[in-house]
Amino acid sequence: MKKLFVILAAVLALPAQAALNVLATVPEWAALAQEIAGDKIKVSSATTALQDPHHIDARPSLIARARNADLLLATGAELEVGWLPVVQRESGNPRIQSGQPGYFEAAGAVRMLEVPARLDRADGDVHAAGNPHIQTDPRNMLAVGEALAARLAQVDPANAAAYRTAYAAFADRWRAQIKRWEAQAAPLKGVAVVSQHKAWAYLYDWLGMREVAALEPKPGVEPSLAHLALVRDQAATSRPRMVIRAAYNSARPAEWFAREAKVSAVVLPFTVGAPEAADLTALFETTVQRLLKGL
Fold first, then answer.
1. pLDDT tens across 213-223, in order?
2. CATH architecture of structural domain 185-293
3. HSE, side-chain direction, 13 A CA sphere, residue 20
């Protein structure tokens, strides 16, 4: 009995297993990882909802966070190509290098849209693998979540069963929410819209909306007043109902176009952490409601 007590006391004295240290490049993957892993991970995002994820400085503080990461979650498809390789290299962390289990790309789990037929940097921020803004379609959260749960199980096998169970519960709940959002968004099907930046291909594909023009002359290039006037005139025959921008975009181009073309200017959260988008559910609740209001 005394021996049993000693063994039990030793087991209770063991430190709890440390939470997996996860660094996401963008808030949506941090939020998805939290949905699946809960308190089994400690997760943070390299960027916020009010930053352009294409253009981030590889600051020493970010490199320090990467140095301690067990798992790095990226969008991929060249979204972070301008800064993430520097962070990986300078971190000196072998776990999160490309090709290692500790490096995960969400884009590899979904069907990519707007894959270019040709590549020419003169065309602006064109991505060879396709449009990287996959988080604007909630259906992609299911595919990415399934792949992410499998990767979490690979790097943390002790909690593999918990990750699979949590993903299954998330998927059931998420499918029900998608069904509800699609019913609410039915009036948006076929609606013509103008985008400030070509960031919404997956959203439009999901809801059946039609992008008839983009304000930027090339992806990532700020439009001049002359170009905005040209887009206004060319888009007039398509009768767009609204112009859409992300919360991090400059307001000036969309507001000018809305005023001149007499359409609604709609600001969408784009990712978790923007106003009225505290989590993944709120992200799509707010997106659908703002689009409907734009009608």
1. 999 998 889 99
2. 3-Layer(aba) Sandwich (3.40)
3. 30
The length of the chain in residues reads 295
The whole-number pLDDT of residue 18 equals 81
Instruction: Identify the pLDDT of residue 120.
Output: 61
Q: b/e per residue, 9-20, with b = 16+ CB within 10 A?
A: eeeeeeeeeebb
Share the mean pLDDT of the chain. 92
Q: State the pTM of this model.
A: 0.89
SS (H, E, C) the chain: CHHHHHHHHHHHHCCCCCCEEEEECCHHHHHHHHHHHHHHEEEEECCCCCCCCCCCCCCHHHHHHHHCCCEEEECCCCCCCCCHHHHHHHHCCHHHCCCCCCEEEHHHHCCCCCCCCCCCHHHCCCCCCCCCCHHHCCHHHHHHHHHHHHHHHHHCHHHHHHHHHHHHHHHHHHHHHHHHHHHHCHHHCCCEEEECCCCCHHHHHHHCCEEEEECCCCCCCCCCHHHHHHHHHHHHHHCCCEEEEECCCCCHHHHHHHHHHCCEEEEECCCCCCCCCCCHHHHHHHHHHHHHHHC
Could you tell me where in the chain the CATH 3.40.50.1980 domains are found?
A: 13-178, 185-293
The residue among 145, 178, 175 whose CA lies nearest residue 163 is 145
CA–CA separation, 160 vs 141, rounded Å? 19
> Which two three-digit tokens encode residue 279?
């989590």
Q: What is the pLDDT of residues 121-167, one digit of tens each?
A: 555 566 677 999 999 999 999 999 999 999 999 999 999 999 999 99
> Tokens representing 175?
């499918």
Domain 13-178 fold: Rossmann fold (3.40.50)
Which residue type is seen at 285? Answer: E
